[in-house]
Amino acid sequence: xxxxxxxxxxxxxxxxxxxxxxxxxxxxxxxxxxxxxxxxxxxxxxxxxxxxxxxxxxxxxxxxxxxxxxxxxxxxxxxxxxxxxxxxxxxxxxxxxxxxxxxxxxxxxxxxxxxxxxxxxxxxxxxxxxxxxxxxxxxxxxxxxxxxxxxxxxxxxxxxxxxxxxxxxxxxxxxxxxxxxxxxxxxxxxxxxxxxxxxxxxxxxxxxxxxxxxxxxxxxxxxxxxxxxxxxxxxxxxxxxxxxxxxxxxxxxxxxxxxxxxxxxxxxxxxxxxxxxxxxxxxxxxxxxxxxxxxxxxxxxxxxxxxxxxxxxxxxxxxxxxxxxxxxxxxxxxxxxxxxxxxxxxxxxxxxxxxxxxxxxxxxxxxxxxxxxxxxxxxxxxxxxxxxxxxxxxxxxxxxxxxxxxxxxxxxxxxxxxxxxxxxxxxxxxxxxxxxxxxxxxxxxxx
Length: 447
Ligand code: SF4
Ligand code: SF4
What we know:
Blueprint: E1 24-25, E2 31-35, E3 48-49, E4 56-57, E5 62-65, E6 74-75, E7 80-90, E8 93-102, H1 120-130, H2 142-146, E9 156-161, H3 170-177, H4 179-193, E10 197-203, H5 207-216, E11 223-228, H6 237-245, E12 260-264, H7 265-277, E13 283-289, E14 297-302, H8 307-312, E15 321-326, E16 333-335, E17 348-353, H9 354-357, H10 370-374, H11 381-389, H12 393-402, H13 413-417, H14 424-441
Parallel strand pairs: 1-14, 9-10, 9-12, 10-11, 13-17
Antiparallel strand pairs: 2-8, 3-5, 4-7, 5-6, 7-8, 13-14, 15-16, 15-17
The structure holds iron/sulfur cluster (2 copies).
The site of one iron/sulfur cluster has 15 residues, from helix 13 and helix 14.
């Protein structure tokens, strides 16, 4: 991977009209449908249900157990009755979900206890029990990321508060409203990981969060608040690492081998909350915005609530929806209808009206090179496009491997700048999906 010196220079409109809106709790929904995966992606891992239809469940009770490192424990987000364990389509993937009819009581699971870990192993086990995953979108279990500390010393923890995507302000509100939990999270990582340096990277378009956290940590020399220029994709792992520390992680290299881990600020807060309350991950803050939404808001929502209920809590729609996204305008995952359900990794629901959702028809590439010039990772999206046109699957895979398609973080910068409106990021995503499948089927020559 060849990172450029002037990394991430794309200036986007922010559309962060909800930044000044404190997160409010939405009404208790009549039912939730909790997907057994934290995100909608073809590589997401499912957890195993441990309840049956007809069971009574309480808030925080484990209802599905992780199957491997990529999955997380799933907990009931409302109290009530399990009415279904059923197939669920999730964007470009499919899986299973547990349906719970709410009894309206939000009765807490009586078995919940405040964790008291005595050493790193116990701490990691507690984080594992919490079911917290990366809430910035990646959805990788936090315990698995922190477990890198067992293999080597993590000197620097980079806390991602950049939130560079248009529309989304959920992390911004977390930084303003939960400074105490950010502090608690840092204390836990100091105690159990032994990390000495904590950098909280925040884009300059959040001056109130920068000021508040600078004041909170003014007497702690281990914590540095780092204002970052408001350019996209400032919050991407590789970009943030480079801009905050000057370090570059090479392809195939583990971040922890540099003595660094990156954790999203909302993930840190959710983890800390578990150690304060004993309540595992059953809810989160999301931003609801977009031209079709009547009253954009930051909402505290139970995992598994339908987009329809979320929209209802925002006064409904003022126009027919043209596009429904989980996430922001650049990297958001399209959803087919308001019947989609909030997952752990859903940080925003952006609903655009039909006019805004209209796509401009792509025209032939004019070889201007803008997509290559803008890519923060120095990749060549036109080469991926060329590869995807090849009929021979082995040749296609070889070219995709050579051009390192799997390094692409799907930030969308290349599509954004393309004057021919070519769907480059979508093509990259298809290329990654093809290559993953091909490598699985050809383990001997796949890597
Ligand atoms: S989406 Fe485009 S700009 Fe972004 S990393 Fe991938 S190739 Fe580069
Ligand atoms: S930006 Fe668009 S038109 Fe220009 S080289 Fe890339 S794909 Fe071709």
